[in-house]
Every structure is written in C-alpha cells, then in structure tokens.
Design goal:
The chain is mostly helical. Helices cover about 70% and strands about 0% of the residues. The protein is elongated.
C-alpha cells in the first residue's frame, strides 16, 4: 500500500503575490492600448475614408480605398476587443501587423521621435500588442468571464 505524501505547498496559486500583481498588471496596459486604438479608429471614421485613402496614397500604400476601410475597422474593432478582453490575442496580433505596416510605410523615414512623425509611439503600440499576444487578456476579461479560459 502506497503511503500518502502530505503536500506542503498551496495548489491554488491565485492568491500568491506574484500571481496577483501579474494578473492586475496586464489590465491597465490592456485598457490603455484598447482606448488608443478605438480612438484612432474613430479618428479615421471622422476624417472620412476619402481622406484616409488619400493619406495612404501619399504614403505609397497600394489599394488605398480598401486599405482605408480595413485599417479603420481593424483599429476600431481590434481596440474594442482588447479593451473588453475578448479575442485579445487575435486582436493584438492583427494590430501588431498594423503597426509594422505603419512603421515601414509612414514613420521610419521620420526618425525616432513622435514630434517629428517618427516611430516612437508606433514602436510602443507594437510592443504592447506583442506582449498582449503572448500574455493574453488576463483574468479581468470578458473571455475569461464568459468561457473560463482565454480565446
């Protein structure tokens, strides 16, 4: 007969300090990046697709009319998904690709600093999205509330 071994550590780690701070830490990051992208989507909607398309033409991007609608939708819907914590990893991945395109076609030629139209802010947005892709939405999200897991 096997002897039962007494466990000396907690099986449920959700109340340990490092886990508590880890889960709370992603929430403000997710809210901030979600708001930024929602607002950028709204900004493009308010500008109108013709003006957004014209900007894309001046940046040398192909299919500017289709791209204007696509980027506007990606930034608004993707930002909303991240803000709510729903399909966060997928939204973060698509938004990271969006930022790579913005980096290459718009910002890299302007140098680093955002005041000169540089890539400083785009780099931060890209890296936060990469972090969200790897981490996920965390426990304070709709996907965890609705399904009990990350989507």
């Amino acid at each position: 007969m096997a002897k039962k071994v007494k466990k000396t550590h907690r099986k449920d780690k959700k109340h340990l300090p490092h886990t508590f701070f880890h889960e709370w830490g992603v929430l403000p990051m997710r809210l901030a990046i979600g708001i930024v992208f929602v607002m950028h989507g709204i900004q493009k909607m308010m500008m109108g697709m013709a003006e957004v398309s014209g900007f894309f033409v001046s940046a040398g991007l192909p299919s500017s009319q289709v791209l204007a609608v696509l980027v506007t939708a990606i930034e608004f819907v993707g930002g909303l998904c991240i803000l709510l914590g729903l399909f966060t990893r997928w939204a973060a991945l698509v938004l990271a690709v969006d930022m790579i395109i913005a980096f290459v076609f718009v910002h890299v030629s302007n140098g680093f600093f955002v005041g000169n139209g540089g890539f400083e802010f785009v780099l931060v947005l890209f890296l936060v999205n990469v972090g969200l892709f790897f981490h996920g939405a965390g426990i304070w999200s709709l996907e965890r509330t609705l399904t009990g897991k990350e989507l």
